[in-house]
Amino acid sequence: MPILRLDKSCCKPQVAGCRQERRKKKPQVVSHKKKPEACSLRPAACKIGITLGDAAGIGPEVILKALSSKKFKKTKFLIIGDKKVIQNTIDRLKISLVSQAAILDLSNINFRFTLGKTNQRLGKAAVECIEKGVRLAQEERIDALVTAPISKQAINSAGCNYPGHTQLLAHLTGAKDTAMMFSGPLFKVVLATTHLPLKGVSCLLTSQRIYKVIKLTAVFLKKYFNTKPKIAIAGFNPHAGEDGLLGSEEKEIKKAVQKAHREGIKAEGPLPPDVLFHQIYSKKYEVAVAMYHDQGLIPFKMLSFDKGVNITLGLPIIRTSPDHGTGFDIAGKGIANPQSMIEAIKMAEFLSRKK
After folding, report:
1. Rounded to an integer, what distance in angstroms lies between the CA atom of residue 14 and that of residue 51?
2. Which of 3, 7, 105, 339 is the most buried (most CB within 10 A)?
3. Distance CA 355, CA 346 (A)
4. Residue 291 and residue 192: Cα distance in Å, rounded?
5. What are 46-64's pLDDT values in tens digits?
6. Superfamily (CATH H level) for 1-175+315-346
7. Is domain 176-314 given the CATH code 3.40.718.10 in the classification?
8. Whose CA is closest to 158, among 13, 25, 329, 53?
């Protein structure tokens, strides 16, 4: 099993506002005096980097199952995380690590933890994995980054005050405008807002914000899929507001759609959400822009849960992930379905070839 070891200083969190804990130094199995940036990877040793995610969840399991699925014979992988966690998962699942996968051992989980339970120190370790993966992608030492699920509660309790991967990745890469796209075999959906309480959605639905999401969607699909799709823009209120009778948010949505039209983007809306998703399922549209998280993800996951992929639009690097969470309720039982992770890796491969 190829193992790459780093000096501990490689793994210090760089996220603003993330508190660092003191950690007892332990001797390295293999030590060197090179600076973190000089830590050598063999040429072409990895193309797709995969972060471990929250070690108490199903991330390690779905990573190993996906890589052993024989879907990726020519792809090189670098698993970014703690080698002990990976080895324990290998032993528990009784599978082998495929020959084209190496481990970048951050050695940052030197403590006991319980599977299926939120743990502040595991949240900190998960952030360190993401930080290292982003740096490797920025240095073009990997072609794309696939991230296993993290616990939002764990990373926030560790002092990393972001509601999820999307905002953390935007901070680490300096990306100004980002959006979450979910891609499946039937359709794609992009979210105008992400992880926040429903009562906070309305005030964020400005025409400029919605326009930026429409533009990100159009640019991404043109660049990677060479298509100018028909984009369906969902209304916020029932029946898309009934011309203001049921709410005023649709006025902002309409302004965003008009601005997109002026730039040649084929966007239609605001459309009644219940009708929109029937129409997109019937292939009238290729992609939908939903105004809030559950508006878009309930229909998407109902139809594409096992094959859905989360793609972050607007980053200077390629990042994908499965469309599910940590699965704490089934962690350690060996029953996690790796299909969404397989699809996330496939999408990362596809996008990296289109760069």
Report:
1. 16
2. 105
3. 15
4. 5
5. 489 999 999 999 999 999 9
6. Isopropylmalate Dehydrogenase (3.40.718.10)
7. yes
8. 13
